[in-house]
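Data availability (excerpt). The following record was deposited with the supplementary files.
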Amino acid sequence: MTLPFQWTFATSTPEMHPMWQRELDLERDMMQSGADAVRDAVIKSERRDQMSRSPVIRGVMTDWLPELGAYIKDWARQAELSKGPRPIALPYIKEMDPHVAALVTVKAIMDGIGRSNQKLVTLALSIGRTCEHEQQIRHWEAKEPKLFYHYKDEMDRNRATDVHRRRVNVNQFAKLCKDATIDLSWNGWGREVTFRVGVALIDALVTKTGWFEYLPDPEHVFKRGAANSPQIVVAPTEDFRKWLGKAMDRYELNSPHFRPTVMPPKHWDGIRDGGYWTPYVQAPRLIRFKAHQETQKEYAADEYDAIDMPVVYDAIHLLQETAWKVNKRVLDVAIKAWALDEGIGKLPPIEDKPLPDKTPDMLEDLAAAREAKRMKREHKRSPHVDAQVLDWKKKASPIYRANAKRFTRMRAATVTIQTAQKYAEFNRFYFPHMLDFRGRMYPIPNYLQPQGNDLARGLLTFADSLPITEENGGAGWLAIQLASMWGHDKVPYGERIDWVEENEVMFRLIAEDPMLHMEWAKADKPWQALAACLEWVDFLNTGWGFMSSLPVMVDGTCNGIQHLSAILRDEVAGRYVNLVPSDRPQDIYKVVARGDDNAVEGLQRILETIEAGGGPDMHKASFWLDLCKRDLPRSLTKRQVMVLPYGGSRDVFYKYTRAWLDEEDPVPADGGSQAYRDRRNEMITFMVKHMWAVVSKVVEKGLAVMTWLQKCAKVVADSNQPIYWQVPSGYVVRHFYGQSLDKRVELKLSGERVQVTVRETTAKLSAQDQLRGIAPNFIHSLDGAALMLCLKRCREAGIEDFASVHDAYGTHAANMNALATFLREAFVEVHEHDVLGEFRAACQRILVDVLVAEKGMDPLTAAEKADEMLPEPLEKGDLDLAGVLQSDYFFA
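Predicted structure:
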């Protein structure tokens, strides 16, 4: 009997994979089909079938692109004939196909329109870089036209061509490009040119369409004593926002640039090559460096290519090779819920909330201002209209901010659902991954991905299924997942399972008709709750042996503080983040809010004591106690405590306390009086003062670790050196923040001269940013290491499917018992290392090199001097790290 073909990395070429041709088409489409389709539409060629299927994009191309392309062409001609100084961008735009330049501009602006503000500088640089890449591809086409067009012809008629011959031809073409056997030399444009090209094209769109305008950044924060003016943003006019809301027809305007693959992503061979299979996708490097200069990035890339990191590569390959599919039942519900536009399952509304009506005086003044501009006369607004405008802005400002946030969320939901619809036809697809410079792993595709929002994660399930049996405990884990997604994740496992069993009738009704029985929509994470509900009912109907594909997730308890506590064996904070075995899950956010029976006096007791004392702060304590109905919730402290290990300062505490207060006690639509705002700020300052004091006591040793790391970083930064350290997974962190240089550039926009500030990160080390970033980045490097070591154990045990969201791990219910063991063992393995001692030794080696090179010291003397320069090691506490292995709620 002949066995079916089994594709593997070790024994097969990519062309042998049954999905190779689909993968090739997808990757080519990611980079080129948009530009090619628009060019062909403009010149009425025969490639129209490669255009995006979105009716909105088709409408925009029909209405805007031909005229915009003609305008750009005419602009270049007029600029060339002008007797004055020629624009820097002119020779570069002149070389471009104007219709392709128009497409690049429209796509960039439309793709970012969901952001609350598109800063001119950032947008211009993005458009300029894309234009340069488009020109590089055309340069490639010009150098080898016969081979280029031969390949295109083969692609156009591939359905009538022998599959094997077509694949061989495509592979030869890819190798030719990759092996650089032809001369494809290219003189880079540089940052100044890319910026100028982008600005010129943006201004062409603004001028020609009249549907965008330049505004000062409405979210700019003026700092007292600082001469900082707001940046210029490119914003859609109100008329265009209304048009777009109707025209989108619930379709995304642009497909995501990076999409999942339909065959296992390419293994990373060094940091420059991997993830996607063909040269058509301008994929990022494996590691996203904290450096903006290309020379710095190339230098860092060369360094990493020389480092052997087998555990790192194995870990990222396991994540990449996890096969996914769309949960079609959840997708069906999402499509129906989205069409209803009723906010089901926390979906954002499709329409904007209307702005307040302008007064008749304001409307009359606007008409007068337009007429004055047309006649080139000065227009001065009267004081009484000024007062009306100020009052209108106060009322409109919160609505404008809410609409901007709504639009961002609406676009994300649209793209997520659209991508799920596109990939629902595939039985399995994959997510190429990359690393940030700390060693944390991220999917490269956007929106629909395993680290996406609740909707995205609810729409994804593993492509393969495993049976739930009495022996593997999968049924309990499936019930725990359901309860946790519903919001019952702060109680013991047994209570979660009991709650699920008690609500069997409700779950069965939901599974029968989710659009009729919508209790799931009120869950904490509604779309993941719905997915778990459907899976649970399927299990109940099938019984033992049910083949489950649902990812079951467990989260670390404030994972940053878990790492800080383990570093110094902090038995106090360690107990509150579940490093110590307990019958019930501990909750550090609740401890800060309400205290406990041990040594921690929480905010609740502190406020009650202040109120009872009758002093000058009594009314402030009463304000918070009354607002919280005499029971301070964990939500009040959660965000502040969570971000503490990642650079949380008093200012950050203030920001999140204000955000919590704005949610629970919204500011009036008119912003309130000055006295009201002053009193509100006074209340927030009071709360932050006492919250910081409580947190500082609970996480005292953790804060000591953060301060110690900053002292080490300062010594190294004073030597003008980046910091390198290796974490227990073998990953090497390169910690470098460059100084920012602000450059004032004069531009001509819509016929008026304006100045903008272009910020560029230089190759010179920023000591301030090194110190600010070292503690959070060190902690992130440890959680990245723990994940990699956990993945190593999973691979060795034969677990092939894994989901991760940094400090949340997941796999099939059938494998959760094994994963629960592996993630605890990996954490302990990380902290069995003296991670602070190893970091100090790394800093010492850097200093030794500097002292030898710059001071002429011999290595032994330099080592002694470097040791004296660095802070002494910190004293450790009595926490028994082995307790993590028995702590049921360490990750839960």
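Summary of structural features: Confidence is low (pLDDT under 50) at residues 33-55, 157-177, 248-256.
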